[in-house]
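FORM 12-B: Structure-to-Sequence Request
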């Protein structure tokens, strides 16, 4: 019987189809990541892996997984997987695009709003019993309606965020590796160079994939070009940002605040200096975390695995060279 390894405990109903037809080995914790040693050992006899973004599926692991036919990543991103090595070994790599677009856009815009209006600070202020009276500038934040949003990475999630921004009568700027004419026509978005995006936007929203070109794009020079009243929102990948430069920009008032759903190292340490700043709203990488969306993502991973093991093409293949 073909063997499937799942690196995080998932609901029984999500993987029922796999358990009915295959031998399934699943890490038994929802809270803790499976140790790398466990994944490597389990992979040696696996025909399929259902992985999380936090799992490093690199050459070392793939070289020891001689039976492996498919890796289904429970994420739209796949920078945790060595795509070239997988392709050379005939392993299909699948992700979960599209199904999480709107949910992630919801969270991104909520993070933008929460950061500007100091929602996290205000909620804590009440819970800690600090609300003693009303005052005109009590926890006053920044306006959103009618401001300028700059979207770095105009993929499907970027376009979904732009649609939400349009409802707030925001001017929409974007920078992308290629022009998106349809988005420009439908959403009234304007393509600008990176420097103009930085200098003209009241909100910079990072939604780009992590690539060699985007890694470290938001560095000290980038933050120095932003408005002192601007907010930086990252719902993409942590390494796109130089966190030391972001910390300095926040401490020295180069920018007004930051809303972060992702970090260079996850989970982020409780002692990380960014978490000590009142103008930082930090979330635990929950961009696509609604019950409906996460269940749909799991179902898509299951379907991709079943298709490959049954000799069919998966629905959402990353390495197109693998296509049968």
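FORM 12-B RESPONSE
SEQUENCE OUT:
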């Amino acid at each position: 019987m073909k063997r499937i390894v799942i690196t995080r405990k998932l609901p029984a109903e999500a993987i029922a189809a796999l358990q009915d037809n295959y031998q399934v080995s699943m890490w038994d914790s929802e809270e803790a990541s499976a140790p790398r040693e466990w994944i490597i050992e389990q992979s040696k006899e696996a025909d399929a892996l259902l992985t999380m973004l936090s799992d490093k599926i690199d050459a070392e692991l793939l070289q020891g997984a001689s039976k492996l036919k498919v890796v289904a990543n429970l994420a739209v991103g796949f920078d945790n997987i060595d795509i070239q090595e997988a392709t050379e070994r005939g392993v299909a790599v699948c992700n979960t695009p599209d199904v999480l677009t709107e949910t992630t856009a919801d969270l991104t815009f909520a993070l933008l709003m929460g950061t500007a209006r100091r929602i996290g600070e205000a909620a804590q202020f009440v819970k800690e019993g600090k609300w003693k009276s009303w005052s005109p500038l009590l926890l006053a934040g920044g306006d959103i309606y009618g401001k300028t949003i700059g979207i770095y990475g105009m993929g499907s999630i970027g376009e979904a965020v732009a649609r939400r921004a349009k409802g707030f009568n925001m001017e929409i700027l974007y920078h992308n590796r290629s022009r998106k004419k349809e988005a420009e026509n439908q959403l009234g978005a304007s393509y600008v160079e990176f420097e103009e995006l930085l200098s003209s936007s009241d909100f910079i929203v990072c939604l780009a994939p992590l690539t060699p070109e985007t890694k470290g794009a938001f560095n000290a020079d980038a933050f120095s070009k932003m408005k002192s009243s601007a907010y930086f929102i990252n719902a993409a990948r942590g390494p796109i940002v130089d966190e030391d430069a972001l910390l300095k920009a926040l401490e020295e008032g180069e920018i007004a605040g930051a809303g972060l759903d992702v970090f260079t190292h996850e989970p982020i340490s409780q002692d990380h200096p960014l978490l000590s700043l009142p103008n930082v709203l930090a979330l635990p990488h929950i961009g696509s975390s609604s019950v409906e969306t996460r269940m749909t993502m799991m179902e898509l991973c299951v379907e991709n695995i079943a298709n490959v093991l049954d000799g069919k093409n998966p629905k959402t293949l990353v390495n197109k060279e693998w296509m049968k």
